């Protein structure tokens, strides 16, 4: 009976093969330099998604942020009188 090790599968994100169209010259240079294209693209896309989510959250909550900033400018920070630092 073969036992399949699945202990680490939940720790790693699933991957999906995809096709990309890249600048040929840059791709050749990256390969010469030993750059892992998949890893770089994945990391950049993850960073881009995180930044876009943050931008959208700020945009969607801008009214609340402005209101809260006005309140703290007028009244100070909540619980500020109990701060010990």
Number of strands: 0
Which spans of ≥5 residues are poorly predicted at pLDDT below 50? Answer: none
> What oligomeric assembly is this protein in?
single chain
Largest sheet: none
Radius of gyration: 24 Å
What is the molecular shape? Answer: elongated
Mean pLDDT: 89
Please give the share of residues in helix: 55-70%
SSE run? HHH
Describe the structure.
The chain has 85 residues and is mainly α. The protein has a domain at 24-77. It is 55% helix and 0% strand. The chain is built from three helices and no strands. The longest helix has 24 residues, at 37-60. It is elongated and about 60 Å long. The N and C termini lie far apart (62 Å).
Describe what is shown at a glance.
Helix content is 55%, strand content 0%.
């Amino acid at each position: 009976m073969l036992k399949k090790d699945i202990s680490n599968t939940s720790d790693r994100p699933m991957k999906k093969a995809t096709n990309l169209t890249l600048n040929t010259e840059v791709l050749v240079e990256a390969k010469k330099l030993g750059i892992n294209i998949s890893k770089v693209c994945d990391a950049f896309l993850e960073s881009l998604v995180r930044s876009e989510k943050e931008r959208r959250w700020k945009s969607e909550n801008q009214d609340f942020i402005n209101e809260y900033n006005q309140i703290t400018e007028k009244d100070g920070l909540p619980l500020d009188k109990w701060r010990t630092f």
